[in-house]
Design brief:
Elements: E1 4-5, E2 9-16, E3 19-26, E4 34-36, E5 40-46, E6 53-58, E7 64-67, E8 70-73, E9 75-83, E10 86-95, E11 101-105, E12 108-113, H1 120-129, H2 136-143, E13 150-156, E14 161-166, E15 182-183, E16 201-203, H3 237-244, H4 254-265, H5 280-289, H6 299-307, H7 326-346, H8 352-363, H9 381-400, E17 414-415, E18 418-419, E19 428-429, E20 436-441, E21 449-454, H10 471-475, E22 480-481
Parallel strand pairs: 1-18, 6-15
Antiparallel strand pairs: 2-3, 3-4, 4-5, 5-13, 6-12, 7-8, 9-10, 11-12, 13-14, 14-16, 17-19, 20-21, 21-22
Length: 498
């Protein structure tokens, strides 16, 4: 949700009218997107599935567009927009059967179609109902009616854990190209939505855990776009999967989840501070396996250092530089490798996730999706990886004015909290995590408890003591208890408004 001051989210508790829920609420959103209810809890990540399309409408110059062999009038209205210190601005808003006009070119208009249009209030009502579900069946029933695309994870005191990829996902016409604007004349119409029982979901898997970090919801699911939606083998969710697979069943505690959150938030991204571009947890092992340490006398020590690295970018001594040289080595190596392998074909500005998934396939002797172009320009993968690492060591020696790897300490990345109003807060060390974090221990009675942090604070008023009073908690990976039931408000209430 970005790092803004104030945040768009705040903590809320609703007790009454069928509700007994505490969690996070977004300003203007009626309901609790993430919360703890009666002996159950849930959370979400953005789904990223491709559920919107741009259509090309053929125009006749008379305010009409061609659809199903007939000329239809564009539905137009004039909106008057007030402008401070200037006269009001009149803007014409037009739409076709597909949606509003987003742009025009000679003889055509581009319209935007989304399955959530007209379903906003229905979806918000069902989202509100999540907070008063009586069972996992009630919870799933409400999810099935929500048009918005999310990954939703659920757990309850009975021991159930569940996952659903939700939203109205269109079924495209046969042969319709998903990557280009669609034919607006009637040949590329949606064929309904994927049925609810065919959407990705899971209940109580044998492995005993679930995770989501905006990754592909199931094998074979269609890619959406670059960035978070590059659903290839390299994805930041692998950081969480690697840690969860090591937990002995039945041993997890609140401290376990705190440690996972902290380690995931500080796993090196490339460049540091970029959130989605986490390659080390997927690729480091394979990259090291391709290094020929006999090529350069510096390589054996560097490979051994990286092999023993925990992947973290941490500034434990507070000197504004990461504590070990592995961060600088990996990030510089990665840039050198991408430039060496992909720079001549794909040029600067290549999306990092696209690059990482090409590189992963080049390192794999039998990739599920073969690479058809010779990006290696006749080199082997090992030669490219080794050469890039040698180039990186040369570059680091120049950057830091030293051939001693111990001197290669990369400056820390920072979170710059963008002011959205009158107040400001200082920058904090980079953490790849949500601005709202919630950890819940589920059980009946006293066995239900939870903790959270919402940064920088609960209030959007810069004169309030709660404007930024959770920033220090957030920056130190610390949490505060959630007040889950009404009677627990005693001793925590500062004021009452009736």
């Amino acid at each position: 949700m970005g790092y803004g001051v104030p945040q768009i989210n705040h903590e809320i508790g609703i007790h009454g009218a069928g509700f007994d829920v505490t969690g996070m609420e977004i300003a203007g959103w009626p309901g609790t997107p993430i919360g703890v209810g009666r002996e159950y809890a849930w959370t979400l990540t953005s789904g990223i599935t491709d559920n919107t399309d741009i259509y090309v409408e053929v125009l006749n110059g008379s305010g009409q567009y061609l659809f199903d062999g007939q000329w239809w009038d564009l539905d137009c209205r004039t909106e008057t927009i007030g402008a401070r210190g200037a006269p009001p601005i009149d803007t014409e808003i037009c739409e076709s059967v597909h949606g509003p006009v987003m742009g025009t070119a000679p003889g055509v208009a581009f319209t935007f179609k989304t399955p959530t249009r007209g379903e906003e209030l229905n979806s918000l009502e069902e989202w509100t109902n999540l907070a008063r579900a009586k069972s996992i069946e009630d919870f799933a029933e409400s999810l099935s009616k929500i048009a918005y695309n999310f990954n939703v994870l659920y757990a309850d005191a009975r021991g159930n854990i569940g996952y659903w990829h939700i939203g109205f996902i269109p079924v495209r016409a046969a042969g319709d190209d998903p990557w280009l604007p669609h034919d607006g004349t009637g040949g590329s119409e949606w064929q309904g939505y994927i049925p609810w029982d065919e959407m990705p979901h899971a209940l109580n898997p044998e492995q005993g855990w679930m995770t989501s970090w905006n990754n592909k919801p199931q094998v074979g699911w269609e890619n959406s776009a670059a960035g978070f939606g590059t659903f290839g083998p390299v994805h930041r969710v692998n950081t969480l999967i690697n840690m969860l697979e090591q937990i002995e069943p039945g041993t997890a505690s609140m401290a376990t989840l705190e440690a996972i959150n902290r380690a995931a938030g500080w796993t090196t991204d490339t460049p540091s501070g970029s959130a989605s571009t986490v390659f080390v947890s997927t690729l480091l092992h394979d990259l090291l396996a391709h290094v020929d340490t006999g090529v350069d006398g510096r390589l054996p020590a560097i490979v051994a250092m990286l092999a023993g690295w925990d992947w973290l970018q941490v500034d434990g001594d507070g000197d504004d530089a990461y504590d070990g040289p592995s961060v600088a080595v990996f990030n510089t190596w990665w840039d050198a490798l991408v430039e060496r392998v992909l720079g001549d074909e794909l040029g600067p500005g290549l999306n990092g996730n696209v690059a990482s998934n090409i590189v992963a396939r080049l390192l794999d002797d039998d990739p599920a999706v073969p690479v058809l172009h010779d990006y290696l320009d006749g080199e082997t993968a090992g030669q490219a990886v080794t050469g890039a690492l040698v180039d990186a060591l040369d570059a680091l020696a120049g950057t830091y004015g030293s051939t001693d790897a111990g001197d290669w300490l990369q400056p820390v990345a920072k979170i710059s909290w963008s002011p959205l109003g009158a107040g400001t807060v200082p920058d904090t060390i980079w953490m790849n995590r949500g601005t709202y974090n919630q950890i819940v221990h589920l059980g009946k009675g006293p066995h239900l408890y939870a903790e959270n942090v919402i940064s920088p604070g609960q209030s959007g008023d810069p004169f309030s003591p709660h404007f930024a009073d959770q920033l220090a908690l957030y920056a130190t990976w610390t949490y505060k208890p959630l007040v889950l039931v009404r009677q627990d408000l005693k001793g925590h209430t500062e004021s009452v408004t009736k």
